[in-house]
């Protein structure tokens, strides 16, 4: 709380003081009206900060939610004399419901398809507002929208209403901040960075997308209520597609991930046309060009640029201490390097597994059993179906036929997040870290399935959320240190390849799974890094994990594996110890083809 308050309070106080400096007379009250509007826009644009900035979902329908909130409130309060508070709550519920609907649609679509659907939604809402005249008043709109009177304060006075709007903005900012710095916020960011990796780390794509859309719609609705009550009159043209583009621009120009940036963006987009009015007919063109320039050349928005400038200045004045260096695992206490002993207790049983892509039989009737305590390796020539098998195991692909049983539970064709929660985690052949997040944040997201605090807890039960977040961060640090890594605060995309692999493994084991699937963990590593990796595998194994890995590096395989399975053309062709399978004629033939006899 204190951190959020310290962050926003000075900014909100500065906003609240603005009316004191406005000129008197009609000009002053005109600017005050614009300020009230810009605060209502800022609240709605904060919805896009969640949806676009955090979760990466593109929506051009924020004006629709703004409109639904405004109209639902105005119709109830002005036409049916429902008390202000009740009308506002009902309007928020209705808007959230529409957000849920759009969220459901978004589950099947992404990027430009999703953007198109949101435009369609925006247009439908515009048409309804215009044509459902009996309820919305059609083109005439709704007038005489009330303002509240609470605690003996009559908010029909513009100054008071402005301060009420600032209070709403403060509450909205606080809630968005809390969401961002919680495990649900981590899930939103993970969704933005990489959906497959997010799902494989136990994050439900369904609920996370629904959360992003409903939270965004609720804030859109709240902005609409403030707008309707602030201007006391609404008509459909305010809530059209152009306004949705304006919300988009406010979020991008200010800085799509920044709460303060979005608020400043809203003010800028509201006031810029006024500042440019001296350009007469050309002002729209110049206004458009300025917005395009900011979006093109300042991807983090104006506020992001400002913060970077301040950061650069601070670096120049006070040189920052050197970043924590990586501690090479090999340089740490050496593990006993005792080859792990496998048991005969099956943990994973695969029976008749097939995965066909049209005519390609990538996996074609494979059976194998992994026992608790195994470090099992899946080898085979390129294109033999190993990664496909792993993808089916982890729920990334659905099986064409066959069954997979984990600890006696049938997990065939379950979703990746469910499989993760049952205790199977994985890494990917082409590392799938969340590139814009730090190493620590990546690993914290791996701990997501262990968290219990939901949305209400995140927003209102601060203590529980705080304790869980602290525990997740502690576990993430501990896991990274166990793997000899200490560059917690470096963005994943800036780490060298070998260290990215280590972070990905840490992310996969932080939640304490039973079975770890590794897809070519040694790929792209030099000899030293590969040696460190075997040490890492032993440490992980020591934690009680069973490991199944795909690997091409035979000396690495020979040094770590307790059991090996060989695939060729989608089928299992050999099974046994590494030495046994490597001397199997079928395996030699699969690798060397017709040269096998000669070899
Ligand atoms: N999504 C997909 N759509 C169509 N074909 C696919 C798909 N994924 C894999 N395949 C095909 O399935 C076969 C097996 O591929 P897979 O990646 O599983 O092999 P692999 O043994 O992991 O190879 P490598 O060792 O090179 O990674 C290949 O012919 C590949 O082209």
From TrEMBL:
Keyword DNA-binding carried by entry: no
Membrane topology: Multi-pass membrane protein
Main location: membrane
Recorded GO MF terms: ATP binding; ATP hydrolysis activity; L-isoleucine transmembrane transporter activity; L-phenylalanine transmembrane transporter activity; L-valine transmembrane transporter activity
Intracellular or extracellular location(s): Cell membrane
CDD domains hit by this protein: ABC_Mj1267_LivG_branched (cd03219), TM_PBP1_LivM_like (cd06581)
SMART domains, sorted: AAA (SM00382)
A Pfam family of this chain: BPD_transp_2
TM segment ranges: 5-24, 30-53, 60-78, 84-106, 113-134, 160-177, 210-234, 246-272, 284-306
Stretches assigned to the ABC transporter domain: 348-594
UniProt keyword annotations, A-Z: ATP-binding, Cell membrane, Membrane, Nucleotide-binding, Transmembrane, Transmembrane helix, Transport
GO biological process, one term: L-valine import across plasma membrane
GO CC annotation terms, alphabetical: plasma membrane
Protein name: Amino acid/amide ABC transporter membrane protein 2, HAAT family /amino acid/amide ABC transporter ATP-binding protein 1, HAAT family
Species annotation: Acidiphilium rubrum
């Amino acid at each position: 709380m204190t951190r959020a308050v310290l962050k926003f309070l000075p900014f909100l106080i500065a906003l609240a003081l603005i009316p004191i400096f406005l000129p008197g007379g009609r000009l002053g009250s005109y600017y005050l009206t614009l300020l009230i509007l810009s605060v209502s826009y800022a609240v709605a644009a904060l919805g896009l900060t969640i949806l676009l900035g955090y979760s990466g979902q593109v929506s051009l329908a924020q004006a629709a939610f703004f409109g639904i909130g405004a109209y639902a409130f105005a119709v109830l309060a002005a036409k049916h004399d429902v008390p202000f508070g009740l009308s506002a709550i009902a309007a928020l519920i209705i808007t959230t419901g529409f957000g849920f609907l759009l969220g459901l649609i978004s589950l099947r679509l992404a990027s430009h398809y999703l953007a198109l659907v949101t435009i369609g939604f925006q247009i439908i809402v515009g048409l309804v507002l215009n044509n459902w005249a009996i309820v919305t008043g059609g083109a005439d709109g709704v007038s005489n929208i009330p303002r509240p009177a609470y605690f003996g304060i009559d908010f029909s006075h513009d100054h008071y209403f402005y301060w009420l709007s600032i209070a709403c903005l403060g509450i909205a900012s606080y809630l968005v901040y809390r969401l961002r710095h919680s495990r649900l916020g981590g899930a939103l960011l993970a969704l933005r960075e990489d959906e497959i990796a997010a799902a494989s780390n136990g994050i439900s794509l369904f609920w996370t997308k629904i959360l992003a859309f409903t939270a965004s719609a609720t804030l859109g609705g709240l902005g609409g209520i403030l707008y309707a009550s602030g201007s006391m009159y609404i008509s459909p043209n305010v809530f059209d597609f152009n306004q949705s583009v304006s919300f988009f621009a406010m979020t991008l120009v200010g800085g799509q991930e920044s709460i303060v940036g979005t608020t400043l963006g809203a003010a800028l987009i509201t006031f810029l046309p006024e500042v440019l009015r001296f350009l007469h007919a050309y002002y729209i063109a110049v206004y458009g060009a300025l917005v395009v320039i900011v979006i093109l050349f300042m991807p983090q928005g104006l506020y992001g640029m400002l913060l970077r400038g301040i950061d650069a200045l601070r670096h120049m004045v006070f040189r920052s201490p050197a970043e924590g260096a990586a501690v090479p695992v090999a340089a740490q206490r050496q593990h006993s390097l005792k080859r792990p002993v496998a048991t005969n207790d099956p943990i994973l049983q695969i029976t008749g597994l097939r995965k066909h892509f049209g005519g390609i039989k990538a996996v074609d009737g494979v059976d194998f059993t992994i026992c608790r305590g195994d470090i099992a390796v899946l080898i085979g020539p390129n294109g033999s179906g190993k990664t496909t098998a792993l993808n089916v195991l982890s729920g990334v692909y659905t099986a064409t036929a066959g069954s997979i049983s984990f600890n006696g539970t049938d997990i065939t064709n379950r979703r990746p997040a469910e499989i993760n929660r049952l205790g199977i985690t994985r890494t990917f052949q082409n590392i799938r870290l969340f590139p814009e997040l730090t190493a620590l944040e990546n690993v914290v997201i791996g701990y997501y399935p262990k968290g219990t605090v939901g949305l209400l807890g995140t927003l209102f039960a601060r203590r529980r959320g705080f304790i869980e977040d602290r525990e997740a961060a502690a576990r993430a640090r501990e896991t990274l240190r166990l793997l000899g890594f200490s560059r917690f605060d470096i963005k994943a995309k800036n780490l060298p390849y070998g260290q990215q692999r280590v972070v990905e493994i840490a992310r996969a084991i932080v939640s304490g799974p039973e079975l770890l699937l590794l897809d070519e963990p040694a790929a792209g590593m030099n000899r030293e890094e590969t040696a460190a990796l075997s040490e890492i595998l032993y440490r992980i194994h020591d934690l009680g994990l069973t490991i199944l890995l795909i690997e091409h590096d035979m000396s690495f395989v020979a040094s770590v594996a307790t059991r090996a399975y060989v695939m060729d053309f989608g089928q299992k062709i050999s099974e046994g110890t590494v030495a046994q399978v490597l001397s199997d004629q079928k395996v030699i033939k699969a690798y060397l083809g017709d040269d096998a006899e000669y070899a």
